[in-house]
Amino acid sequence: MGIAERREKEKIELRALILSAAKKLFVIKGIEHTTIRNIAEAIDYSVGTVYVYFKDKNAIFHALHSQGFNELGQQLALLMAVENPMERVKALGRVYINFAKANADMYSLMFSQPAPIDYLEEEHADEWKEGVLAFNVLKGTLAQCIEQGYFKGHTLEPLTYLFWSAVHGMCALYISERAKGVNLTDPDTIVERGYEEFLKMIGE
Amino acid sequence: MGIAERREKEKIELRALILSAAKKLFVIKGIEHTTIRNIAEAIDYSVGTVYVYFKDKNAIFHALHSQGFNELGQQLALLMAVENPMERVKALGRVYINFAKANADMYSLMFSQPAPIDYLEEEHADEWKEGVLAFNVLKGTLAQCIEQGYFKGHTLEPLTYLFWSAVHGMCALYISERAKGVNLTDPDTIVERGYEEFLKMIGE
DNA sequence: TTTGCCCTCTGAACCTTGTTCATTAAATTT
DNA sequence: AAATTTAATGAACAAGGTTCAGAGGGCAAA
After folding, report:
1. CA-CA distance, A16 to A97, in Å (whole number)?
2. In terms of domains, do B40 and B96 share one?
3. Residues 156-185 of B with CB under 7 A from strand D
4. Which residue of B lies nearest to A154 if distances are taken between CA atoms?
5. Contact between the CB of B47 and strand D at under 7 Å
6. Same domain as B83, residue B143
7. Comparing C-alpha atoms, which of A157, A140, A154 is closest to residue A79?
């Protein structure tokens, strides 16, 4: 059955084409200002076709969202090879920051863009699983650090939350460009420099 | 000239009425899902009237945005009464967190909602001044801490950025409900507990 | 009191955008 | 060749943002 397979492949390709066009437009114009017609035009298909492949605009956002988490998750997973847990946490932060800066658009899609109403409800739990996974990787690593005698007097869960929040906060402010308004000496490297301060605090 | 004054007062009041209705709706339904018609109905005026008082939907967002920063700014300003700079930074964080949690809607309006396109441009510099002010208050306080011998080996600017980011990050994740998905023991107090961890790190 | 001006408020109408669905057209199967 | 299945189309609808010509009411001058 080669024909059915070819058709299947074509469908997958068109779906991917729609996603990549949507992503590009979301980045340039923002999600709100990207219309389905924009996307359709960009790939020379009709509006209706987009709806053949995605239930609605939400579903497109949704797909990109998952895609982003998978990418980040993969990058973080690589770090499990680092033996020393303390080195690993430090690296986790760096990788996270690099990802956020290199995929600013994707990052704000993942964390800053308010999730469209309906999708927070139903299967939300399922969708967010990649995020939970990342959180647990961090938590596990910090637990190992504590076992090894680091972070004396700290409590695991809130510590994990703090760690994630600090890194996320720096990335979010950087990406939203709020950082620029504040007149920093070198806005472009502020995240890295901020992170160094954090490591300094942690540093035994 | 009592008549002109009364008219002026009425205008100011109607403007405020529109704003309060808009805020209420933004909170309940989200900005995107609040329509000008919703706002008009809520205050028993016609759609057109809203446009008499505000150029467009953006302008409403804009006005609320400024309002939020003023409120937060005022609360933070009160803390300048605290003599000890180390106590003051700690308090700044607490007040900030309280504000964010008590005005979750407003807070996400201020920081998470992507600023509508056009307004990032032109007079943006002017608008963000309240934010800059808050940042500088924190920076000044931290500078005093350093003078008094705290934060040895740290650099002022990135330290300030880190501090703000950590607190902001925790608030943002909390408000966006991402925190809930992660299955924390007690999601409601996670921000406070995370902040305690941060203070522990800072604490000499 | 009457006249005319000035404001505020009105809501029908227009445009854009998300979404649907009956129809077309092409490919595959019989 | 005919029938069937499937993908793609785009006109049409609903809903929301925005505009604007005009209604209506108060106020001052006549």
Report:
1. 27
2. no
3. none
4. B197
5. yes
6. yes
7. A140
